[in-house]
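Here is one chain, start to finish.
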Amino acid sequence: MKRLTGVTLMALLISACSKEEPPPEPVRPVLFVEVKPQAEESLGRFAGNIAARYESTLGFRVSGRIAQRSVDVGAEVKKGDMLAVLDPTDQQNQVRSTQGDLARVEAQLINAQANARRQQELFDRGVGAQAALDVAVTDLKTSQSSFDQSKAALQQAKDQLSYSELRTDHDAVVTQWKVEAGQVVSAGEQVVTLARPDIKEAVIDLPGPLAEQLPNDVVFKVASQLEPDINTTATLRELEPQAESTTRTRRARLTLADTPPSFRLGTAISVTLSSAIEPRIELPLTALQEVDGKQQIWIVDTQNQTVSPRLVQVVSRNTDSVVLAGGVKGGERVVTAGVNSLKPGQKVKVDKDSPR
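Its structure:
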C-alpha cells in the first residue's frame, strides 16, 4: 500500500513538472497622436504674393521716340530720378523758334515804346497831333501783347522740352516697362509702372463660392513660402466684386498686421484661412474601431504603458479623419495604428517617433 502511494505521488510530481506556464502577453508597439482640441476651422490655403498697395503708371506728356531707358525692372528709384528720355530734337527746335519770335517782338516793343515816348513829348510841347499819339499808344499796347504772348510761348516750349524727360515724383520700385528704347509713343501712353514700397499688402485669388461666403470672423495667416516660420496675420481690405473670366476667382487684397523685412515686393506667400468654431476633437480615421455597433478608441496610459478602450460619439468623418463629440480630453494619447490587435490592459511600447 505504501509502495502504491509513493508511486502515485511521483506520478503527480512528474505531471506537474510537465505543465509549462503560459507565455506573457507580447508588448505591442503602437503609434499614437496627442489629442489637441481644435477651436478653429480651416477654410483652405492659397498661394499669393506681396504687392504694393499703391501703384502708378507713368507716361510722357508729349509724343516722341524713346531715346533711352535709364533703369530696369526691380530698380529702386528716388524722387526726381530719371526714368526715360525722348529724342528732344523737335522740342529743342521749337524752343529755338520761339526764342527767335520773342527776340523779334521784343525789338518791335522797344521801337513802339520809343515812338510812344516821342509822340507824348511832342504832344506835351503842343507840336504833336493827338491822332499820332493815339496811334503810337495803340502800337505800344499791341507790341506789349505780342511780347507777352511770345514770352509765354517760349515758356511753353521749354516746358515741352522738359516733358521729354520722364522722372519719378516719389520713391518707388520699377515693376514693369511697357515700352522699349526706340519705340515711338504718344502723349499719355502708358510707359512704366512704379510701386511704392512703404505700404505692402498680400494678394491672393479666392474661389468664387468661398469668396461669397467668407465669415465675418475669418482670420488670414500669411507666411513666406520659403521661410514658413516668418508669418503674420492679415485682414481683408478689398475683395474684387467680379470674378476673373477664365479662372472664376476673385482677387483679395489683405492688410498685414506686421510687415517682416523678408516680405519684399513679389515675395511668394502662403495664406491660410480659418474661422472660429466650437472646440472639437479631430483624430485620424485609423484611430476609430467599431465593436458591436459602437465606436471606440484606445487610450494609452503613459504611466503603466497599457491601453484601454473608450466609447466615443462620432460627429462626422471623411476619408482621412473623424470628428468626435467629446469623450477624450486634450493631452491624452490615442492609438492610431493596429487598434484591432489590442486588448484591454495590454502592455504597449510607445513609438518615440509617433506623431504628436
